[in-house]
Design brief:
Chain lengths: 300, 313
């Protein structure tokens, strides 16, 4: 395909000097100038805490069925109402945060680590480059939601499989980013000097290349996290994601599909939480991009 | 130019080959034995073995891949496990709503997003810019179906302006056809518009900083003339690229949008196939959409010469 990147994906930029102290102080300074990034971080932190402390936040068993109190509207004892099986929607939504956040964070970590490894090696080994990039092009030509659907269709629906499937769809984008960075970095005089003075392959990657790829990778990871949460919700919504015995925002909405007109709150609350969480991750990502990657900050 | 087209076509062969290999492996690895399904409940072991041999299911992987490719060349995508109909027939039955929805969304999104991106760049830091950037962050954060339900809740349930769901084909009249496409297109298009508007803005900002733009202003050209004649033309390549790559978002979104709005298209076919584990359909749809995606991006690559005569092949 072409060399320009997809949604909120970064173009390979010449890496900013990632001197430890200056980068982190710049990060703090920029975050201070970006109230939206702070707001994003705060909301995200609140969501993480809610997910961890779910059992102690006035929730009941999110799977407890009670036919006698089906479809109660929000208010009173049931803050967000009850669904068609009488389950407490508030509890289900709070527990649902666990799924979204677990998928988002796990996919961001896994795809960053795997993508970074593949990208570093292929950026440096010319013979591997051609093969790996063709495979990545092949993977990228399958629209990611379909690729994830196809992978999950092969296995049974479980949280782990959802994470693996989404990770596979995100890896090619990380590899492209890292490879682009490595290609420019290896032409840098200090890398050439290291090669000329006989430094081995691994130390060059480890000490000279890797540190300079970290800032863009971290920024990219936040966007991967946001996109993974959306993909998980889509998969659950169409019945190819988290199994029904684990409440997730996507499958709460999926179950409410036919009831949308009589019980809109069943769709509204999980949708609201999902949107707010993804938005806060995106805002945090934008702030970090401005802080860590000044060249891109100017452009986007 | 012709040579370039040929070279570009050749370069897509390994990509398409990999996609085909992947999609074939999907079917190969899928659980369940089609021979058992076809043979029915009362078949003996021998019957099943005979059917398996008849279908070539006892052959090694590469032989089956070769046969599958051969069948594919004749437009044969296999047979749906659940309905027993050829996958190509099922796709042909369902393609019209999907094409209508995607094309409508594509045209409307580009028509809105590009001017918005240009305006945002022309008045960088102004209120249009801030509004476009804020809405685009929102657009990236709202999953298609959440937005779809918001729109339905507002425009169909509360205001009763538009139908809640369903699809009317063009033969039933242009008015109903369009009415049923407005909300699905809006829901599907927001992410795509956000993406295009952002790239348009970024690309325009780069171009507006160039010397020839200052020259154009200096020689007295009006701002609209500079923006469209000089700047947009030079900013077009990244915009065209993102329009092509963004098709992947539309394709993923179509599956969901058709589910929310009960549109009987390929997306709906896919979702039904997932629920029934009808692998040949999932495989056929994946192959079809990937093919479309590769083709669109090939056309985008070739279109660069139109925008930028300096790109010669």
């Amino acid at each position: 395909m072409t060399d320009t990147q997809a949604p909120a994906v970064l173009e390979p930029a010449p890496a900013p000097a990632a001197g430890g102290a200056s980068a982190s102080s710049r990060l703090l300074a920029t975050l201070r100038r970006h109230p939206t990034a702070i707001a994003g971080a705060v909301v995200l932190a609140a969501m993480v805490i809610a997910a961890v402390l779910a059992p102690w936040l006035g929730t009941t068993d999110p799977l407890a069925v009670s036919p006698i109190r089906r479809l109660r509207p929000p208010g009173g004892e049931w803050w967000f109402g009850t669904d068609m099986l009488g389950r407490d929607v508030y509890s289900r939504v709070v527990y649902g945060a666990r799924v979204s956040l677990a998928v988002g964070i796990a996919v961001a970590l896994l795809s960053s680590v795997i993508g970074l490894t593949i990208g570093l090696v292929t950026g440096f080994l010319r013979w591997a480059d051609a093969i790996v990039m063709r495979v990545m092009d092949g993977l990228m030509s399958i629209p990611s939601v379909l690729l994830a659907i196809a992978l999950i269709a092969l296995t049974k629906a479980s949280l782990e499989n959802v994470i693996v499937a989404i990770t596979i769809t995100e890896i090619p984008r990380v590899v492209r980013l890292v490879r682009g960075l490595v290609l420019t970095l290896r032409e840098q005089p200090y890398v050439e000097a290291a090669v000329a003075s006989g430094t081995r392959f691994v130390p060059i990657l480890w000490r000279h290349i890797l540190p300079n790829t970290l800032a863009p990778i971290i920024v990219q990871a936040t966007y991967v996290c946001a996109s993974a949460m959306i993909t998980e919700a889509i998969l659950s919504f169409i019945g190819a994601g988290t199994p029904p015995n684990i409440p997730s925002w996507g499958n709460i909405m999926a179950e409410a599909r036919s009831l949308f007109q009589v019980a809109g709150y069943l769709v509204f609350f999980p949708g609201l939480f999902l949107a707010i969480t993804v938005l806060s991750v995106n805002l945090l990502g934008d702030g970090m991009r401005d802080a860590l990657d000044p060249r891109l900050a100017r452009r986007m | 130019m012709l040579w370039y087209v040929v070279r570009r076509l050749l370069a897509t062969i390994p990509v398409v080959g990999l996609v085909a290999l992947f999609v074939f492996s999907l079917l190969y690895l899928s659980p369940g034995d089609p021979a058992v399904v076809i043979a029915g409940d009362y078949a003996s072991e021998a019957d099943i073995a005979r059917i398996r041999a008849g279908l070539g299911l006892d052959q090694p992987y590469l032989v089956r891949f070769g046969r599958w490719l051969g069948a594919l060349a004749h437009g044969d995508l296999g047979v749906s496990i659940f309905t027993g109909l050829p996958v190509s027939t099922l796709i042909a039955q369902r393609i019209e709503p999907t094409v209508a929805l995607t094309v409508c969304t594509l045209v409307v999104s580009v028509a809105f997003a590009v001017p918005l991106g240009v305006l945002a760049a022309a008045r960088a830091g102004g209120w249009i810019d801030r509004a476009v950037m804020s809405v685009s962050v929102l657009g990236f954060s709202l999953p298609v179906f959440v937005l779809a339900y918001l729109l339905v809740g507002l425009f169909s349930v509360q205001l009763e302006w538009l139908p809640v769901q369903g699809y009317r084909n063009l033969a039933e009249g242009f008015g109903p056809f369009l009415k049923h496409l407005v909300l699905p297109s809006a829901a599907l298009g927001i992410v795509y518009m956000a993406l295009i508007a952002r790239i348009t803005r970024a690309s325009m900002l780069d171009v507006l900083a160039q010397d020839y733009v200052r020259t154009a202003h200096a020689k007295g050209l009006s701002t609209p003339a500079v923006l469209t004649g000089h700047a947009l033309k030079n900013a077009a390549v990244p915009i065209a690229t993102i329009i092509g790559i963004g098709i992947a978002l539309l394709i993923g979104g179509v599956v969901v949008t058709e589910t929310v709005f009960a549109i009987p298209g390929i997306g709906r076919l896919t979702v039904d196939a997932i629920l029934r584990r009808d692998y040949p359909i999932i495989q056929g749809v994946t192959l079809l959409f990937s093919g479309v995606y590769v083709l669109v991006n090939l056309l985008v690559d070739l279109s660069y010469t139109l925008f930028d005569p300096r790109i010669r092949y």
